[in-house]
Amino acid sequence: MNTFSGLLSSFVHQKDISVYPMTRYCGVDRTLMYKYLNGKDYPKEQAVVERMGDFMRLSPSEYEDLLTAWKIEKIGWKNWNSRRNVEDFLLNFPDVSRLSESLSLTGSGSGPATYPDCRALPTHTALNHVVSQIIVDELQKEDGRICLMLQPDYTYLFHLLTGLGEYDRQIPIRHIVCFENTSQPDRNSQDHNLLYLRKILPLYIRALDYSVFYYYDAVNAHFSNLNGLSCLILTSSCAVTCTSDYQTGILYGNPDVVQTLQSHFDSCQEKCSPLFSPIHSIRDTCETVLKFFPASDEYYSLQPEPCLIPFLTPDLVNRIVRTETPERSELLPMLNNFIRQLRQKISGGTCHMFHTSEGIRRFMKTGRIYEIPEELYQPFPPEDRKLLLYRLSQHISGRYSILRGPLENLPQNFHLWVSSANGYLMFTNRKKETIYLLFTESGLLTAFMDYLRNIDEKYLYTDEEARHFMDELLEAEIKS
């Protein structure tokens, strides 16, 4: 990896740059410029690096390389790499509207399958064939279940599991995954934990009966080929153990062996922690989310549309909550109390909220807020949309910030709230249910908090640009 000084020196020599004219162009003392070139110092302001790129007439890729090297020099490779991994996770969050069609899985229809006591699976193809068959057979059982003790990097298996979301009947899936116990990325600079999180989220979005549990260990050491058959796939009637590269394995159909492995799995699960605490109802949301974020915490929100819930008033709530909603008279006071407390948290100045301009436009067009379950309320009428955005505009340059650049393309069903101690992901699943996944895993919390606390200024509208955008939007809607 090129250091900033090494890359700068390389460009100066390649392009035959005279140092003195460049120092004058950049407004930098000549002695200081030579310190930059010799690795004894680096620019403290990005503007200086940009002027260097302009003077040397760098190509876009060369300029990006120089700027990246400078950022690494400024914040350290570890922090830079962590933020890069978080950004990659955010930009690749599985969008429910873009999930590919599931695999079409059909059973033999000839009754329960029988399996040999023990059979070798000597190839990757043989392993995949058996795994697909035992999953299809298990789906047809009234008491079917699947237990997994492996990493979420078995692509074929996870495609199969995602496809189960198309079936009306679901079977419980329990999954034990190893989380990396250090903050050091792998040889490809990848953050294992964020990568695994991205791999398992489609199962929640497909509305599967899926639970994941985690423990800490050195992933590369624990799941290396030298550890033999380190992965386990278990159903009610058979088990498959396989290598961590999913190339070979063994199928077990002997009931005593299956039961022994099931007992082993259950014992391991007891020693693990649940990664998520799902919330499935609006009542649980009101009761749990506020407890999750004490008023004394500093917390961050990242989502496509702005968080408009704090600007709802009881009259608005009464108008939009559907009249046919079960126990509506009890629900309304609970919702209003939740909104009031959330408003107090925001007014306390401890929250920082990021959203997109497209999310604002989408709300103005549809009257929908993804934080509220769709079946609970009617879309806001145009006059209420304007009212809420006007209230938002009073905070647009304070606690609310508008995103630009790559983060403008956040999936519309993505919502992240995080503090130093707690966090949750909220999204809409395949059944259009609003799902909250609460998590407390320290590595994920640290990574998300660090990224949002240090979000690149180039990804944000300036206060002036944000106010101008809101004024133009409201004026245009008023005229229309």
How is the topology of this model organized?
Layout: H1 4-14, H2 19-26, H3 30-38, H4 46-56, H5 60-75, H6 77-91, E1 118-121, H7 124-139, E2 146-149, H8 155-163, E3 173-180, H9 192-205, E4 210-217, H10 219-222, E5 231-235, E6 239-242, E7 249-252, H11 255-270, E8 273-274, E9 277-279, H12 282-292, E10 299-302, H13 314-320, H14 328-347, E11 351-356, H15 357-366, H16 382-393, E12 400-403, E13 415-419, E14 423-428, E15 434-439, H17 442-453, H18 463-479
Parallel strand pairs: 2-3, 3-4, 10-11, 11-12
Antiparallel strand pairs: 1-7, 2-5, 4-8, 5-6, 6-7, 9-15, 10-13, 13-14, 14-15
Helix pairs in contact: 4-5, 5-6, 6-17, 7-8, 12-14, 15-16, 16-18
What would your notes on this structure say?
This protein has 18 helices and 15 strands. With 480 residues, the protein is an alpha+beta fold. The protein is flat, with a radius of gyration of 27 Å. Mean pLDDT is 86; it is low at 100-109. Helix 12 (282-292) runs parallel beside helix 14 (328-347) and helix 15 runs antiparallel to helix 16.
**DSSP strand tally:** 15
Percentage of helical residues? 40-55%
Mean pLDDT: 86
Largest sheet: 8 strands, mixed
- Structure annotation, total helices: 18
Secondary structural class: alpha+beta
User: How would the global form be characterised?
Assistant: flat
The low-confidence runs, each spanning 5 or more residues with pLDDT under 50, are: 100-109
Strand order across the largest sheet: 1-7-6-5-2-3-4-8
Beta-strand residue fraction: 15-25%
Distance between the termini: 55 Å
Rg from C-alpha positions? 27 Å
